[in-house]
Specification:
Elements: E1 12-15, H1 28-40, E2 45-48, H2 60-74, E3 79-83, H3 89-102, E4 106-110, H4 119-132, E5 137-141, H5 143-146, H6 152-158, E6 164-169, H7 174-183, E7 187-190, H8 196-201, E8 206-209, H9 212-227, H10 231-247, H11 253-264, H12 280-292, H13 307-310
Parallel strand pairs: 1-2, 1-8, 2-3, 3-4, 4-5, 5-6, 6-7, 7-8
Helix pairs in contact: 1-2, 2-3, 3-4, 4-6, 6-7, 9-10, 10-12
């Protein structure tokens, strides 16, 4: 029996990129293949249509098609979490109900961004999301992007709702995280790749990562080592992965993650404006960062059969690892 608390959505979760075809159209087949590769490599769960999934640039119809494709591909083997957060409560509720109909296991709801609601507005907004379906909800606290943190007292109030069960924590405030962990049972997931190990020390249950789409096997080993009571090994892995944790965020993370997946022969495709593809210099720096972390990106795989391969996506099997039980 491990030392980590129970994980409602698994230990190793990635905010999956949304594969597009070369012409920029949604690639549902590529999404299914990428999701399959990630789960085969040990992922317990996937977030679909998060910011890394370029959700600001996908239509509601595309979000639905993407989610259904992933649910069909891996829904029997992993937790599929639908990103439904917007800064319009009514629209968020529409997306939440559509996600439930499409077969999602859970919802990820980010703090409404740009319009900077008061804390009482956050309570009302997140409460409405949790009331809209029968699915469990993970809150996403990332004030650097939204402009508003979810305050400690607000999180404690929201924790009283039976369907608000987890937080993706990208606040960067370990003291605030500790205060919430001490006073309620919300399951904490690291929302900042480099902070996963520090948050495990505060009782987090796992990570919702971005670079984990490439270095997930190593992050899985780190989490497993911590859970097995071997903090020295966990720390050694964390320190070795620092160049990768930094490298994927030298520019917007979806850009470099898609570049890395392309080098590995996995579906990703282009990004949509206002994002731009990685430059040659950015790709070269990422390859060097990952090499320093012990991860090789420099050997593309050959294309597999089928329409996704014809569109430029490739199919490989990432190294499999034993899945961590909750």
């Amino acid at each position: 029996m491990g030392v980590l608390p129970a994980a409602p959505f698994g230990r190793l979760v990635s905010a999956m990129v949304t594969p597009f075809r070369p012409d920029g159209a949604l690639d549902p087949e590529g999404a299914a293949r990428l999701a399959t590769a990630l789960v085969d490599a040990g992922h317990d769960g996937l977030v679909i249509s998060g910011t890394t999934g370029e959700s600001p640039t996908t239509s509601d119809r595309e979000k639905d098609a993407l989610l259904r494709s992933v649910v069909e591909a891996v829904g029997d083997r992993a937790t599929v979490i639908a990103g439904v957060g917007t800064n319009d409560t009514a629209h968020t509720l529409e997306l939440a109900r559509a996600a439930e109909s499409a077969g999602a296991d859970a919802l990820l709801a980010v703090t409404p961004y740009y319009n900077k609601p008061p804390q009482s507005g956050l309570v009302a907004h997140f409460g409405a999301v949790a009331d809209a379906t029968g699915l469990p909800v993970m809150l996403y606290d990332i004030p650097g992007r939204t402009g508003v943190p979810i305050a400690t007292e607000t999180l404690l109030r929201l924790a009283e709702h039976p369907r608000i069960v987890a937080v993706k924590d990208a606040k960067g405030d370990l003291s605030a995280t500790a205060q919430v962990r001490a006073r309620c049972d919300l399951a904490y997931y690291s929302g900042d790749d480099i902070a996963t190990l520090p948050l495990l020390a505060l009782g987090a249950v796992g990570t919702v990562g971005v670079s984990t789409q490439v270095v997930g096997r190593h992050v899985h080993e780190m989490i497993t080592a911590w859970d097995a009571g071997d903090p020295q090994r966990a720390l050694a892995i964390h320190l070795r992965l620092l160049p990768a944790f930094t490298g994927f965020f030298r520019t917007q993370a979806a850009i470099l993650t898609k570049a890395a997946l392309g080098l590995l022969g996995l579906p990703g495709g282009p990004v949509r404006l206002p994002l731009l593809p990685a430059t040659e210099a950015e790709v070269a720096r990422l390859v060097a960062d990952c090499a320093e972390a012990g991860v090789q990106l420099s050997q593309p795989m050959s294309a597999g059969p089928g329409p996704a391969a014809a569109a430029g996506a490739h199919s490989i099997r990432l190294p499999a690892v034993e899945r961590t039980s909750a």
